[in-house]
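Here is my example:
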Amino acid sequence: MNETELRSEIAAERGELAALLGDLPAGDWDAPSLCEGWRIREVAAHITMAYRYSAPRVIFELVRSGGSFDRMLDRCARRDAASVPAAGLHASLRDNTTHPWKPPGGGYAGALTHDVVHGLDMTVALGLERRVPERRLRVVLEGLASPKGLKYFGADLDGIELRADDIDWSFGSGTPVTGAAQDLALVLCGRRLPAGRLSGEQSTRFAAT
Protein backbone atom coordinates (compact mmCIF):
# COMPACT_ATOMS: atom_id res chain seq x y z
CA MET A 1 0.00 0.00 0.00
CA ASN A 2 1.09 3.55 -0.59
CA GLU A 3 0.83 6.26 2.07
CA THR A 4 -2.57 7.50 0.91
CA GLU A 5 -4.00 3.98 1.02
CA LEU A 6 -2.51 3.31 4.45
CA ARG A 7 -3.99 6.48 5.89
CA SER A 8 -7.37 5.56 4.45
CA GLU A 9 -7.20 2.12 6.09
CA ILE A 10 -6.10 3.66 9.40
CA ALA A 11 -9.05 6.04 9.36
CA ALA A 12 -11.44 3.18 8.55
CA GLU A 13 -10.01 0.99 11.32
CA ARG A 14 -10.31 3.74 13.90
CA GLY A 15 -13.82 4.58 12.79
CA GLU A 16 -14.91 0.96 13.10
CA LEU A 17 -13.33 0.64 16.54
CA ALA A 18 -14.94 3.89 17.66
CA ALA A 19 -18.35 2.60 16.57
CA LEU A 20 -17.72 -0.61 18.49
CA LEU A 21 -16.69 1.23 21.65
CA GLY A 22 -19.71 3.48 21.36
CA ASP A 23 -21.98 0.43 21.56
CA LEU A 24 -20.22 -1.30 24.48
CA PRO A 25 -22.28 -1.93 27.61
CA ALA A 26 -20.88 0.02 30.55
CA GLY A 27 -19.69 -3.13 32.31
CA ASP A 28 -17.56 -4.23 29.37
CA TRP A 29 -15.21 -1.30 29.84
CA ASP A 30 -13.94 -3.00 33.00
CA ALA A 31 -13.57 -6.44 31.42
CA PRO A 32 -10.02 -7.76 30.99
CA SER A 33 -8.35 -7.34 27.60
CA LEU A 34 -5.66 -9.53 26.06
CA CYS A 35 -3.04 -7.01 27.25
CA GLU A 36 -1.87 -8.44 30.56
CA GLY A 37 -3.06 -6.31 33.46
CA TRP A 38 -5.15 -3.98 31.31
CA ARG A 39 -8.90 -3.76 31.08
CA ILE A 40 -10.71 -2.56 27.97
CA ARG A 41 -10.55 1.00 29.28
CA GLU A 42 -6.75 0.90 29.69
CA VAL A 43 -6.40 -0.28 26.09
CA ALA A 44 -8.68 2.54 24.92
CA ALA A 45 -6.66 5.03 26.97
CA HIS A 46 -3.47 3.72 25.39
CA ILE A 47 -4.82 3.88 21.83
CA THR A 48 -5.93 7.49 22.28
CA MET A 49 -2.86 8.71 24.16
CA ALA A 50 -1.26 9.97 20.95
CA TYR A 51 -4.24 12.26 20.32
CA ARG A 52 -4.44 13.59 23.87
CA TYR A 53 -0.73 14.18 24.64
CA SER A 54 1.49 16.82 23.07
CA ALA A 55 5.11 15.99 22.22
CA PRO A 56 6.44 17.99 25.24
CA ARG A 57 4.08 16.12 27.54
CA VAL A 58 5.26 12.76 26.21
CA ILE A 59 8.84 13.78 26.95
CA PHE A 60 7.82 14.92 30.43
CA GLU A 61 6.05 11.62 31.14
CA LEU A 62 9.03 9.68 29.79
CA VAL A 63 11.38 11.49 32.15
CA ARG A 64 8.99 10.80 35.04
CA SER A 65 9.16 7.12 34.12
CA GLY A 66 12.93 6.99 34.33
CA GLY A 67 13.36 6.93 30.57
CA SER A 68 11.46 3.65 30.16
CA PHE A 69 8.99 3.94 27.28
CA ASP A 70 7.11 0.79 28.31
CA ARG A 71 6.83 1.95 31.93
CA MET A 72 5.55 5.33 30.76
CA LEU A 73 2.88 3.77 28.53
CA ASP A 74 1.65 1.50 31.32
CA ARG A 75 1.57 4.25 33.93
CA CYS A 76 -0.23 6.71 31.66
CA ALA A 77 -2.76 4.14 30.49
CA ARG A 78 -3.65 3.20 34.07
CA ARG A 79 -3.86 6.81 35.21
CA ASP A 80 -5.92 7.96 32.25
CA ALA A 81 -8.25 4.98 32.48
CA ALA A 82 -9.00 6.05 36.04
CA SER A 83 -9.44 9.75 35.28
CA VAL A 84 -10.99 9.91 31.79
CA PRO A 85 -14.55 8.56 31.54
CA ALA A 86 -15.39 5.95 28.93
CA ALA A 87 -17.34 8.52 26.95
CA GLY A 88 -14.26 10.73 26.76
CA LEU A 89 -12.04 7.88 25.53
CA HIS A 90 -14.63 6.94 22.95
CA ALA A 91 -14.92 10.54 21.75
CA SER A 92 -11.15 10.85 21.49
CA LEU A 93 -10.98 7.89 19.13
CA ARG A 94 -14.09 8.90 17.18
CA ASP A 95 -12.81 12.44 16.62
CA ASN A 96 -9.29 11.46 15.55
CA THR A 97 -9.74 8.91 12.80
CA THR A 98 -7.54 10.96 10.45
CA HIS A 99 -4.94 11.98 13.04
CA PRO A 100 -1.45 11.75 11.46
CA TRP A 101 0.22 10.00 14.43
CA LYS A 102 2.88 7.41 13.61
CA PRO A 103 4.85 5.33 16.13
CA PRO A 104 8.55 6.25 16.27
CA GLY A 105 10.26 4.46 13.40
CA GLY A 106 7.07 2.63 12.43
CA GLY A 107 5.52 4.85 9.77
CA TYR A 108 1.88 4.54 8.80
CA ALA A 109 2.17 0.75 8.55
CA GLY A 110 3.15 0.79 12.21
CA ALA A 111 0.19 3.03 13.04
CA LEU A 112 -2.18 0.62 11.31
CA THR A 113 -0.62 -2.33 13.13
CA HIS A 114 -0.96 -0.50 16.46
CA ASP A 115 -4.67 0.12 15.93
CA VAL A 116 -5.46 -3.34 14.54
CA VAL A 117 -3.64 -5.24 17.28
CA HIS A 118 -5.07 -3.22 20.13
CA GLY A 119 -8.51 -3.42 18.58
CA LEU A 120 -8.15 -7.21 18.62
CA ASP A 121 -6.94 -7.04 22.22
CA MET A 122 -10.39 -5.72 23.00
CA THR A 123 -12.70 -7.57 20.61
CA VAL A 124 -11.18 -11.03 21.05
CA ALA A 125 -11.18 -10.67 24.83
CA LEU A 126 -14.84 -9.63 24.76
CA GLY A 127 -15.79 -12.45 22.39
CA LEU A 128 -16.91 -10.06 19.66
CA GLU A 129 -16.64 -11.63 16.21
CA ARG A 130 -15.23 -8.64 14.37
CA ARG A 131 -13.17 -9.51 11.29
CA VAL A 132 -10.34 -7.21 10.27
CA PRO A 133 -10.28 -6.83 6.45
CA GLU A 134 -7.60 -8.89 4.73
CA ARG A 135 -5.95 -5.85 3.12
CA ARG A 136 -5.19 -4.50 6.59
CA LEU A 137 -4.13 -7.84 7.98
CA ARG A 138 -1.59 -8.29 5.19
CA VAL A 139 0.15 -5.08 6.24
CA VAL A 140 0.03 -6.08 9.91
CA LEU A 141 1.35 -9.60 9.34
CA GLU A 142 4.17 -8.38 7.13
CA GLY A 143 5.39 -6.04 9.86
CA LEU A 144 4.94 -8.45 12.76
CA ALA A 145 6.72 -11.31 10.94
CA SER A 146 9.67 -9.12 9.96
CA PRO A 147 12.97 -9.43 11.86
CA LYS A 148 12.22 -6.09 13.55
CA GLY A 149 8.74 -7.16 14.61
CA LEU A 150 9.85 -10.56 15.86
CA LYS A 151 12.63 -9.01 17.90
CA TYR A 152 10.36 -6.37 19.44
CA PHE A 153 7.63 -8.74 20.60
CA GLY A 154 9.83 -11.76 21.31
CA ALA A 155 7.14 -14.39 20.77
CA ASP A 156 8.44 -17.95 21.21
CA LEU A 157 7.78 -19.56 17.83
CA ASP A 158 10.57 -22.13 17.93
CA GLY A 159 9.52 -25.25 16.01
CA ILE A 160 6.17 -23.77 14.99
CA GLU A 161 4.59 -23.00 11.63
CA LEU A 162 1.74 -20.50 11.89
CA ARG A 163 -0.81 -21.31 9.21
CA ALA A 164 -3.88 -19.15 8.49
CA ASP A 165 -7.08 -21.00 7.65
CA ASP A 166 -8.92 -18.00 6.21
CA ILE A 167 -6.30 -16.43 3.90
CA ASP A 168 -3.24 -17.71 2.05
CA TRP A 169 -0.56 -16.97 4.66
CA SER A 170 1.90 -18.96 6.73
CA PHE A 171 5.07 -18.27 8.65
CA GLY A 172 7.82 -20.37 10.20
CA SER A 173 8.53 -24.08 10.00
CA GLY A 174 7.70 -26.98 12.25
CA THR A 175 4.49 -28.21 13.87
CA PRO A 176 1.49 -26.37 12.35
CA VAL A 177 -0.62 -24.12 14.54
CA THR A 178 -3.70 -23.09 12.59
CA GLY A 179 -6.18 -20.29 13.08
CA ALA A 180 -7.65 -17.11 11.64
CA ALA A 181 -5.01 -14.72 10.34
CA GLN A 182 -5.97 -12.06 12.86
CA ASP A 183 -5.53 -14.54 15.71
CA LEU A 184 -2.11 -15.50 14.37
CA ALA A 185 -1.21 -11.79 14.34
CA LEU A 186 -1.91 -11.80 18.07
CA VAL A 187 0.32 -14.86 18.50
CA LEU A 188 3.14 -12.94 16.79
CA CYS A 189 2.61 -10.22 19.41
CA GLY A 190 2.97 -12.71 22.25
CA ARG A 191 -0.69 -12.64 23.26
CA ARG A 192 -2.41 -15.59 24.90
CA LEU A 193 -5.70 -16.39 23.19
CA PRO A 194 -8.95 -17.80 24.58
CA ALA A 195 -9.22 -21.56 24.26
CA GLY A 196 -10.55 -22.92 20.99
CA ARG A 197 -9.34 -20.18 18.67
CA LEU A 198 -6.29 -22.14 17.46
CA SER A 199 -5.80 -25.76 16.45
CA GLY A 200 -2.79 -28.06 16.29
CA GLU A 201 -1.01 -30.17 18.85
CA GLN A 202 1.10 -27.21 19.96
CA SER A 203 -1.75 -24.69 20.02
CA THR A 204 -2.00 -24.76 23.81
CA ARG A 205 1.38 -22.98 23.93
CA PHE A 206 -0.48 -19.85 22.84
CA ALA A 207 -3.70 -20.26 24.84
CA ALA A 208 -4.65 -18.41 27.99
CA THR A 209 -4.53 -20.55 31.11
Q: What stands out?
A: The mean pLDDT is 94.
